[in-house]
Every structure is written in C-alpha cells, then in structure tokens.
Amino acid sequence: MEWKPIETAPKDGTHVIAYRPTKYGEHIESMYFDDDGWFFSFDGEYGEEQPTHWIPRPAAPKEGSSDDRRHLQAPESQP
C-alpha cells in the first residue's frame, strides 16, 4: 500500500493512518479530520505539525478484538 497525499484523505471524521514529520522525528499515527483540522485518534489532541500523507486503516483483527477484553484485566481479577 502506498502513502497518499493528505489532501486526498477523507475529511468526514474517518480515522486514517497519518504520517507527519515533526521536530522530534517522524510520526505515524491514527488521526481524523474535523472542522478544526487534524487530531490524534487516541485523545483528541491537536498536533502542531500537520500530516503530509495518509493510508487507510486496516480492519481490526478478529481474534483479540474489543469483544475479548479478558487480557485487559488485572491477573487477580481474571476467572
């Protein structure tokens, strides 16, 4: 899969994998666009450096998806 120019990314709130060069290095992260610009998917934070390229997010894995949350529990609370 090849990176696409950010101008071609969906602007409807769809989460994409975005590439953005920063003063701290290159970042590849899940982002989405709304009326105020590009935001990080995990916390709604806004990055000073804007993404330059994007690719679609792959489908989530079937095994270990949000339906199977046992691995997220503390060991003493697991059945």
From TrEMBL:
Span of domain DUF551: 9-62
Region (Disordered): 48-79
Biased composition (Basic and acidic residues): 64-73
One Pfam family cited in the UniProt record for this chain: DUF551
Domain of life: Bacteria
Protein name stated in the entry: DUF551 domain-containing protein
Organism: Chromobacterium violaceum
